[in-house]
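> run fold Beta-barrel assembly-enhancing protease
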Amino acid sequence: MTMLRPLSLALALCAGLVPSAPAVALDGIAGPYLAGRQASRFSDYGAASDYFRRALISDPANSGLLENALVAEIGRGAIDMALPLAGRLEQSGVKSQIADLVVLADLARTGDYETGLVALDEGRTAGALVDGLYRAWSLAGLGRMSDATTAFDEVADAAGTRSFGLYHKALALASVGDFEGADRIFSGEEGGPLRATRRGVVAHVQILSQLERNDAAIELIEKTFGETGDPAFLALKQELEAGAILGFSAVNGPIEGIGEVFFTVASALNGETSDINTLAYARMAEYLAPGQAETLLLCAAILESQGQFDLATKTFNRIPREDPAFVTAELGRADALLSDGRVDAAIEALRQLARDNSGRADIWSALGDTYRRNERYSEAAEAYDRAISTFSTEDPGQWVVYYTRGIANERIKNWGQAESDFRKALELRPDHPAVLNYLGYSYLEMNTNLDEALEMIERAVAERPDDGAIVDSFGWALYRLGRYDEAVVQMEQAVELMPEDAVVNDHLGDVYWAVDRKREAEFQWKRALSFEPDTEEEAKRIRRKLEIGLDAVLKEEGAEPLAVTKNEN
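> ok
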């Protein structure tokens, strides 16, 4: 299996769920309405809900207000508050797909499959793809499995939605004990191989175990996640190796099946369309399966991407400590806290997580990254030390920990260890441009190993020719080697790629000075100052170059003078 990805047609079948801005007559409600619209623009669902409800007091039958309020309630996860609004919209005679979505989800939650089918027949819709899968699962809920499988097949046979129909058909078959039929779909014997999702792999592993094929289940885990992959799958693998027969819990009946429909569609839409459309489907999945960790993780990730860090944090917090996804949730919560500017709270969350899971390299590495990004390099190096100490075997994926530890050590002037870390990272990933560039540039700054530095940076440029930082390093290497005319070409390209970077503009100024283009050099140094160099020391050096020129500054610093240029400009 490979990942389920949305096809353009599948997206079209779900598009238009949430209207961009329902029309509203503003007589007497302009203030709260406009405030609600502003809050909605920034995905501040709590504030939007308050403002729209305030406006509804003055105009309770206003369909535009009702729809805006409904969207706000869905966004903040208050489906119990959204349901009455959906009912009032229906009473107003306005057709609303977002209201239909809420009504259909609630019918599923109560197990009223018959009414759900009637609602579809009468024109309610949550998008053509969802409608087809919803119908199939509702038929299964009524015990009409033959009709249900036909309905799943109809979705699978429609253009662009084959994977969706087959995936849900397999889950439905497994939920009624037809594990052989489900395995034929997951393995590709029926309809071609499915694309793998994490939840799909869980389902297939459980199905194989139910068929007493634990060896095949173990092979599937190893093939998908490797020997040292996802901790949750490692735990499943241990159970399988011990001879346990795993129960099928991926989908426990039609209610969870319809919840899986909403989750499947939300996952497919994620990053492909409006965040509120994606969140609406994810919220319906959450409504039908409130404790489903992956759904909560998806909701939280969408909220974080919308800048709703408090809502995201609260959503991450809903995943209990005993859940296999708890560590992932805590890492996500720490990231949301960081994005919200709550650095100390994020660090404390990561430190506690590391204390409780001292053998997890990913946690120590995340803690190290947090320290490093906040320029606490000594603590970062210590955290990376702990991450590396957990490695029992060598793996190419470990390069990033050595690389980031190298950065931390370089920043605290522990160059011997930094160089060793960068070399180890390159041993694991020989052509990684970030490592080649960082080590090569470090050699340039120390004026050592210049030929090797140039060779490393040339390899990095070959990998990422449009990366301004790497092109800057290439130009700087040529400058250090006295190849000024060649350096000009590269530095000018770097400035085109990173026009507002202080370092790149400063470097171009130095290169221009070296080829006697002094007015242009001064212009670039002034631009560099306007972009606020990282440190006052860097800014002071640029100001000094503007005062007395680069040659004099190099002399003051006791550095080697510029080589004699052949450029006559």
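Confidence is low (pLDDT under 50) at residues 1-9, 565-569.
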